[in-house]
C-alpha cells in the first residue's frame, strides 16, 4: 500500500460525490462541503497513510453507535444488552418508526439503527449523562490516542432541536419497557455521542482497534474486550450500512459503519483500520463516494472476508 495507490482510488471515485447530498434533516450537517473526500488507512505495523481532505473534522454520527455498543457490552454483558436489542439486520431506513412496533417484543432490530443505539445508550453506566458521556470519551481517547475528545456544540444543539423522530422512537421504547431509565437522559447521551468531532484518521484508528480484536498498543484492556469487539464486528458486517448492508457485504465484504455526516469506519479483520469521509450521502444515508471507495479498497487489497487469502 502506498500514497499513490490510495490517491488513485480516491480520484477514481471522486465523481460519485455528485451522486449524493449533505444530510439536511439535521440542519447544521447541511453546511459540510459535499466535495470533500478523504481516506486514512492505519496498519498494525504502525503505518498511517492519509490522502485527500483528511484534516477536516466532522461528527461521528452513527459511527459512535459501535463504541456505544462496546461500552454497554463491557458494562452489562452481552445477555443483558441483547435482551433489549436484537441482532438482525434491517431492510428499513435507520430511523424507521414503523419497524419498531411490528417486530417481536417491540425490540429494535439491532444496536446500529437509531432505536437500537438509543436503547443501548440507556444501558451505559454512570451517575448522570455527563459521567456516561465521559466514560465513552475516555474509551475513545484510549483507542485514538487523542487526549481531548470534544463535542461539536453546534451540531449537538441542532440534533437536540430537531431530534423529534429519535424522541418518538425513545418514548415508544419506554412504553414497551425496552428503556427502563430516564428517556430524556438516554436521548441526551445519544445526541452527544453522535456529535463527537473526529477526523478520518481517528476513524481509521477505531477501525484498527477493531481489526486487531480490541488491542490498544498491543494490549487487551478488559478481559471481555475480544468478545465485545467480535460482537461489534459481526453486527457491523450485517447491519453497519443500514439498508445498504447486504450490498456492501457482498461487494466490499468488510465490517464497516457509516454515519450521516459522510464518515465510514471500516475494520477488515487482522488487516488494517480504514477511515473515509465524503459528506455527500446517498438515499440510504451512506457516503455516496465512500461506499465506492470501500469496494475499491477491498478489491485492491484483497480485504473481502470471504476471499481466499
Ligand atoms: N444523529 C443521527 C440521527 O440520529 C445519526 C444517524 C446516522 O448517522 N445515520 O439521526
Folded structure, characterized:
The chain has 309 residues and is an alpha+beta fold. It has two domains: 3-24 and 31-59 and 199-301, Beta-lactamase (3-Layer(aba) Sandwich), CATH 3.40.710.10; 62-194, 3-Layer(aba) Sandwich (Beta-lactamase). 46% of the residues lie in helices and 10% in strands. It is built from 13 helices and nine strands. The protein has helices at residues 3-12, 64-76, 78-84, 98-102, 114-121, 129-144, 153-162, 164-176, 183-194, 200-211, 225-239, 245-251, 288-301, and strands spanning 38-42, 48-52, 58-59, 197-198, 215-216, 219-220, 256-258, 263-266, 273-277. The strands form three sheets. Strands 2-1-9-8-7 form a five-stranded antiparallel β-sheet. Strands 3-4 form a two-stranded antiparallel ribbon. A two-stranded antiparallel ribbon has the order 5-6. Strand 1 and strand 2 (48-52) form a beta hairpin. Helix 5 packs across helix 9 (183-194). It is globular. The protein binds glutamine (GLN). The site of glutamine has 11 residues, from loops.
